[in-house]
Amino acid sequence: GQSLEQPSEVTAVEGAIVQINCTYQTSGFYGLSWYQQHDGGAPTFLSYNALDGLEETGRFSSFLSRSDSYGYLLLQELQMKDSASYFCAVMNSGYSTLTFGKGTMLLVSP
Amino acid sequence: NAGVTQTPKFQVLKTGQSMTLQCAQDMNHNSMYWYRQDPGMGLRLIYYSASEGTTDKGEVPNGYNVSRLNKREFSLRLESAAPSQTSVYFCASSSIYEQYFGPGTRLTVT
Prior knowledge:
The complex is a heterodimer of chains A (110) and B (110). Chain A is mainly beta and 110 residues long. In chain A, strands 2, 4, 5, 9, 10 and 11 form a six-stranded mixed β-sheet that branches. Chain A has a five-stranded antiparallel β-sheet with strand order 1-3-8-7-6, with no helix packed on it. In chain A, 0% of the residues lie in helices and 57% in strands. Chain A contains no helices and eleven strands. Chain B has 110 residues and is mainly beta. Chain B is built from no helices and eleven strands. Chain B has strands at 4-7, 10-13, 19-25, 31-38, 42-49, 56-57, 64-68, 74-78, 87-94, 99-101, 105-109. At the A-B interface, β4, β5, β9 and β10 of A face β5 and β10 of B.
């Protein structure tokens, strides 16, 4: 089976940098994705890492180390609108399904 | 281009009642999914359909059935609702790396 671990809650202030870690145990690993969900809303895709290293998309970056079964999402220049839940998800073999972590609630304060 | 749509948005059922949740996508995706989201549990896969005409069980399929009506539509049926099925249900479709989620159906079973 698959299991993912991520912190349940992280707090930070506007303008700061925050890192949300994710460790996973899985078979048939194809890649690690990150999704954002604002309260009551639909999850939206942020990033996907298939290979080791850092992927940057604007203020958000995502990192993967396959040998360590570890990844993280880095959010820079935090804004109030970044307050949301962030989920890591493992893409399973054949690209067919995702297994999600339980999510990290990020609270950005002024 | 509406993306992924779901109906209804809200529903209250009594124990033992049945209902069908509807989902449609207009992105010509082959793969579609049904998830449930409970507080502190993240997103858990109920059923998925990798292509028109095929369906497969996910992590939590008991008490549910699905139909992939055509490439656009994927419905989820609760034959005899139970209070444990009180949850938020999300439908999604995917390109290879990214899943697109509908707005969700908030279901309460009393």
